[in-house]
Request: fold
Amino acid sequence: MLEIEPAIVQAWDKGSEKFVAFHMRKARARATGEDCPSILVVDDEERLADTMTEILNISGFCAFTAYEGKTALEIMEALQPEYLLTDVVMPDMNGVELAIAVREKLPQTKILLFSGQASTTDLLEEARIAGHVFEVLEKPMHPVRLIEHLKRLRQK
Amino acid sequence: MGRKKEQNVPIAIFARAAPPESLLAAIVESSEDAISSTDLAGIVTSWNEAAHRIFGYTAEEMVGQSLLRIVPREGRAKMEGILWRLGAGEQIERFETTRLRKDGQTVEVSVTISPVKDASGRVVGAAKIAHDITERKKMERQLIRSEKLAATGRMAATVAHEINNPLESVLNFVYLARRTTPSHEKAHGYLLSAESELDRVSQIIRRVLGYYSETGRRDEVFLHEILAEALAVYQAQLHAGGISVDCRYEDRRRIAVHWNEFAQIFSTILADSIQILPRGGSLNLAVEDSRTAEQEGIQVVVRLRAPGVGREAFDRAFAPLAAIQGGISSSIGLSLARELLEKRGAQVILNTAATSEVSDAHICVFVPFA
Reply:
């Protein structure tokens, strides 16, 4: 059976005067000692982001969702998940800009770009020239292969 | 009145200083453009050296003959119409047309026709200046073709992207539906099949629409590795189609190429080969170190042998790859493959041969190291 549960609970932390987010699954995993890698899924196509998050959640990950770059960066800073899986072409802050910002602030994050279009090669080439090299996965990719790939990154 | 007289002066001077006929003849002879004259029936009365060079016929061969000799069948009525209009005193605008050379090849020319009048002012013939524009036309066609291709490529990339996102969503939904359906239910099996079909769609899109040229760093690879990987995808189809395959990989040096680009190029060549080869046909693939007069590189030879396939079928099918004029194959894939090869500085040579039993096609792709 698929388990359905609220993914994230936000609470105001008086000490730091910031919103903090608890991932229910992560909290439980911590309590039971289960290994549950956390990941933020970012895509401006909400259906894609939602389904991917759900799939990761039933596959042993603790996944969060963001639909745009700026929110994603805030969540990354607040929750500091192990992985970032982000779309490349998004309005406002694109995936490459997000990835560069995350790498600067949280260098231990495993970053994967997930792209469905050829024009991303230009964005990536620009980033590469500036010294930022990221791994890119091509959409569409079967979820099972994506999960295998994520797990492999962990073993490296 | 005095004014009018003044205006006449230069003409009078010109008339007095008219160059001797020999000078005019020398000018005509040394012209880069074909200059000829005919009577109103189209019989050639003069023919300069450039006309000889452009059309292949000497003055001896043409003077006294009909100019229709160099006019293709479909242009003859137009030529006759022009002579008739000229005789009637009409002006003929400069026009572009095709002419036939002595060796049977066509030559594209820009033609200016002016009337030749006798002393009484009656039109008795036509003087023609034909400027060879074959090269210019070729450039124009190449430009149109590459612009069309670029537009097609842009469209393909856009379509690919528009499809890739929803496809990923559908794949996710189907996967989730399967995961939440007990495995003993029929729906579970259906969803599993749907997933594998969607996977197939993804691969097709990647091959057909996902054509794009890479801008990143090239990989240092053995070219045969890319060919072997592309071949593996088609193994089942080749087997099912009764086509035998023979490979010889003898390249000893790595070469800097974009893996994805060459995977696309080889996939397209293989896919198109399978389409054209009948049961009993064979496909030979060879990769080896090679050198031309100027460059060293890797050569990939794809050889198709097929009983019962005319060599024209091979010529037609692979013309876009070798940029052969007149190819009518609709393979966007091959045209794009050629673009990618050209961008990499590679050369493609297509040779076909036939005996009464079997036809052969050699596609030779030379990729220079630098």
